[in-house]
Structure formats: structure tokens, C-alpha cells
Structure prediction request, 595 residues.
Amino acid sequence: MINLLTVITVANAKKLAAAAYIIFNLIISKIKSKENGLKENSIDKQYHKRIAILKLSHLRPLNNISEQDLQIIYEISQGVEYDKAEDTKLYHKLTGSDPEWAEDVSGLRVVFKEFLCILWSEGVVTLPYTFNITHAWKKNPEFEEKYTYGFIWEVAKGVNSLERASRNWQYRTNWHSPKDVDFNELWSAVPAMVEIYGSTKKHGKFALFSWVNRFSTLHPEIISPDQAFYLERYRMYLAAKRTHEGDASRYTKTYLEYVKYYVMTPEEAKSLPTHDKKLRRYKIRNINRQYARPSPKAIENRREQKIKQRAEQLLSEAGGAVTEDGSLLDTLSMAVSAEDYMLLVEFPKRNADLDWISNTFYPGRQKVEIMEHYSQWILMGSKFFKKLQKSKRKSQGYIDAQVNDFRFLLDYVFCYLPLWKEQHPDSRIVLPERIEDFERILYWCDDLIDEETVEAISNLKGLDDSFEVPLTALQLRNTLRTQKSNKPFINAVHLFFETVRTYGPRYDIVDGKYSNPVNIKMDSTGSGSRSKSNKIPFPREAAIIAKAYMHTLDSIGVQLRTMIIDGRISVENAAIIKRSDWIDLSELGITALVT
Prediction:
């Protein structure tokens, strides 16, 4: 077993008392051989620290150590600094008396660590992952090799890193022979190990995977090398999920599930190049294609197809129809959710401008009077578009991208929100027909959504706990597009509302106190998609030439400075040289050679 708890696990309770008594006598006899009787009246603190275990043996018998005593011993051993109240309480629980000296407790820490390690070697206990072995063998270093260099040490022997690591983590296991190692137990323990490592940031607590790899080569009948390989990859997989998402519990898999998920064999994985990322990705794609593993795009296409089939079935049941080109029209908007409608319906093509806006643009949504009810959005949208076109520093590609992202916001306001409202007639949320009604936490980012906030911003009272709200624009964006496209979308929408804040008061759309509902720093979680570059990589072979050229320029500069300071170059000539694009070094008597 592997102890994933913060308390000692007793593996053999019947053996505990007898083993504890023998180990304590072993330690006490070692101390007695160095001390000539007890000098209880001594004022030497170090002396009291050395004989702390002897005092303990006089205060209570050591032949009846219980599981409760064992936990107290563990707590005392893990103390770092003297805490009078806590240490006195623990000492009293163990002996029935209070310590006379602080050293009566601190002198037990190393002794108790020694005791617990030897008790583990007898197969009586497994120690918690929080067990700190520091200074355990400070008093009796010969005991470490004699009593704790067992089966785990034999496997690790010869590899310094494994030897050092195994001295820490071996006490968390009950592995005293090869048959004690169980692969299924190891696999099921990986999620907890990843969680412990992620919260403590101390990898040494369970640095056993390299040891398992070595063990698999010596005992393939217990754990095969392939199993050891997938075990290590599974740990890396969960660790990555925990790092990026904070919790890896929903990504746990059985061994067979993970092997199917990983696809590659150990040989294929080890053959992948590590120095060239492009070549590595190319080989991974070929392996995925070989095993017919679907790409994320293929998975998403299948999802969309399933939703479309479900929508068609609902349409047929509702007596609707599908047009010849397969687009779902009028009855689709009431047969499926607003989110599915936005996913399924293919909007007509539109140019990178706003001339497409009309009441009849969205299929099946002609009853929404966009031109009449959303005139503010149309007006400020046109100002936003003109502002982009007048920006001399921006390329046409940038302008097109900004307009495309802004169109998604208009689709959200003109199509999704009215459709959602129709499907949820009991919802008392007010649609943002005016721009100032576009509230951040209702329609953009629900980072602070709650009942009180909705009541306050909507001037509504009496909302119950089940009040309904639509997806925010960011949530809908994540549903329909990839998450890495969020940043340019956020930037475009932020720029639009900045345009509203700047020019809106002139048209009585907003007042001077209007605040932008988009906060780039709070809302943007990633760097966005990778932009294209026209930069040409500097040839590595030319670096030595460039370096020599720069050294030569530096030498010329030093000579010019010296000649000006010495007066060999007059002030007038220095001014001419400064204004010149090129300098004829021969006229100045300077020679330079790039070498």
C-alpha cells in the first residue's frame, strides 16, 4: 500500500507493542553506553537533550505502546521549534507528566524519527507523506544502513538520484519485497499523488516513478516496462491538467482507457524527436492518422452533426420543414435552443462592413425589427467602422478582423438575445436595445452574477432563486469558437465601446459618465491566436561575420573619439562627420579591416 494520509497507518497491530519495545531498548542501550548514569540535577541543556529518552523510559513503560501513543510520537517527531503549550500537551499525553525542560521534548524528536523508521522496516507501519526524515540518523548513523537498507534500496542501488529519493519516499509504502508492489494500487494512487504534489510543491514526497521504471526491468512479471511507461505518462497528463485547470479529478482514467487515449506505443513515443517541435508535431499527426484517432476538429464536426440531426427530428415533429440547401429556418428557432440555433444556422455571406444589417438578414428571425429597435447599435457601429477605416497605421487585414469580431457581438445582440427571450418568456431580463442597457455582468461576463446584482441593475424586485439569464457574449463565443480567439474578440468589443464612450454623448446615446463594460485585463485569459510575421530569421552561419563587423565599427568609433579629443579632427569637421550618412575613413587616415 501507499500511505496518502497525514497519519500513521498500522499494518500489523499485533506486532506493534513487541516491536516498539525492542526498538526502544536498542536505542536506549546505545545511549546508556555513552552516559554514566543519570544526572538529573545537571543544568546542561545539551545533557538533558541527550538523555530525554531515558527520562521517558522512567516515566512510563515502553512495552505497551498503542496506536494512539504512536500518533503522539509521530507528532512530537515532526516538531521543528519548541512550542511550550503544544509540546507540553503531547508530552503529558504520552507520559502523564509535564516536561521539566524544553529539551525533554526536543531531545525526543530525532529519537522518535529513528524509532519510526526502524518500526517501518519491521513491516509494522507505513508513515504519512508528511513525515520529515531530516536528521533522523544524526545520533546513530549506523542504524540507517543496518535496518532500513532493504528491498527498495537494492533496486535503487547504483543510481545516485534514485538512492537519494528512495530514502524519503520508501517510508510511505509497505514495499519490503517485490511481491508487495502492486500496479493497480499504484495506478489508482496517481491522482492523489498529483494533488499532493501540486498543493505542497515538494516532488520528493512521491518521487518513485523513476524507481518503478527500474523495478519493471528487474521484475517485468510484476510490472512490465510498458506499464511503467504509461504510469509515468499518466502522472504527467494529470499534472498538466491540474496546472492548467486547478483540478484533475475529472480527467482520471483506468489503465486501459488511458492506453487507448494515449494511442502511441512506448517505442513510438520514445522515437519522437525532442529537438524539432515541427517535426515532432508532424510525426504525432501521422501516428494519430495511423490509429485513426479523430482530431478535435473532427470531434466538433460530429457534435454539430448530432445537434443538426436532433434539430431536424424536432422540426419534423413540429410540422416544420427544411429548405433544399439544408438550412433550418422559421420553426427551427422554436424547436431547438437559442445556442443550438446559433451553431446550426448558416448566415448569409457578408462583406467586411455593416451594410448587411436589415430586419430580414437572420434566417427565420424576420419578426425582430432590428432597424427600429436597435438603431443606436447601428449608428455607433457605423461610427466604429469609419473610425477603423481612418486609422492610417492599421492594415486592411487588421480592420477586417476587427469588423468580423464586432459582427459576432451584433449577432449576439440582434439574434441570440431576442431568440432566447422568446424561448424564456417568464424571464424578466430587459433586452439591451439601448447601448447603455448592455450590462457587463448580464450580457458580457458573469463574473459577479447574483440575484441582488440582477435586481439592482434591472430595477426588478421579487426575483426568486431560479431566475433565468442567457449566456453572456463571452460564454456564447466559447461555445461557438475556439477559446484562443477570445483575446482579439475582447479587444475589438472593447474598442467599440470606447468609440461609444467617446462619440456617444454627441448623439445622446450615452452620457459623460458612461463606463466601458469590457475590461481587457480582467476578461482576457490568453494570448490569442498566433499572428503572422514577415520577419526573416537571421542565419546562424552569418553570426560570426556580423560579430566581427560590429567589433570593427566599435574600433572605428573609439579612434574617432580619440582624434576629436586630441584635436586631430577640428570641431567643424566633427560636425560635418556627425551630419554625414557615410564617412570616408581614408580622408581621416583611419584603416579598418573586418576579420
User: Anything to note?
Assistant: Residues 540-588 form one domain. Confidence is low (pLDDT under 50) at residues 318-328, 460-465.
